[in-house]
TrEMBL record:
Keyword Transcription: yes
The organism's place on the tree of life at top rank: Bacteria
Descriptive protein name: RNA polymerase sigma factor RpoE
InterPro entries on file: RNA_pol_sigma-70-like, RNA_pol_sigma-70_dom, RNA_pol_sigma70_r2, RNA_pol_sigma70_r4_t2, RNA_pol_sigma_r2, RNA_pol_sigma_r3/r4-like, WH-like_DNA-bd_sf
Domain RNA polymerase sigma factor 70 region 4 type: residue ranges: 119-172
PANTHER family: RNA POLYMERASE ECF-TYPE SIGMA FACTO, RNA POLYMERASE SIGMA FACTOR HI_1459-RELATED
Domain RNA polymerase sigma-70 region: 27-92
Upper classification of the organism: Bacteria, Thermotogati, Deinococcota, Deinococci, Deinococcales
Pfam families per the UniProt record, alphabetical: Sigma70_r2, Sigma70_r4_2
Keyword annotations from UniProtKB, A to Z: DNA-binding, Sigma factor, Transcription, Transcription regulation
Gene3D superfamilies reported for this sequence: 1.10.1740.10, Winged helix-like DNA-binding domain superfamily/Winged helix DNA-binding domain (1.10.10.10)
Keyword Manganese: no
Amino acid sequence: MNDALDSLSDPELARLAVRDERAFEVLVTRHAPAVHRLAALNVGPGAADEVVQDVFVAAHRGLRGFRGDAQFSTWLHRITLNACTKTLGRHRPSVPLEDAPEPASAQNLTRAAEVTQLREQLSAALRTLPPEQREAVTLREVSGLEYAEIAALTGAELGTVKSRINRGRAALRAWLTCAGVTPHD
């Protein structure tokens, strides 16, 4: 990557990326890990790569329309959530509670396998939430957005966002407990 491009802000890169592929590559490198995490938790690890590709194709096409009213990362989160919703609509995964994976056994699995399994369980649990709750919870817990940012991004009232997050967290806690995962406070 070009060091000069690496030092530019997201809005500067977005303006350049309309006509300079190298600037767009810097944006992709900078934001792909966060987009992948958000996608994996929403659609599952298996479909996340496809969603990431769809996100950056859509972002590239939409660069001319990016006005900079919101942060580039917030704009990218919206595109990611839209791509996740589209993917979930096509594949419609449903994971009955009785089919939830058993908790990892510390005796016969490595720590990496336990972490992978926990991520898969969390992803499955998130997919059971209504779309509005899943979106609010992932924006808060995965992307680290503030409540007001989530409200602005989703167009929901601040109180509605807080309620969706609280209900989503409660549903996740219940699902994970039934799956044998002990949530920590």
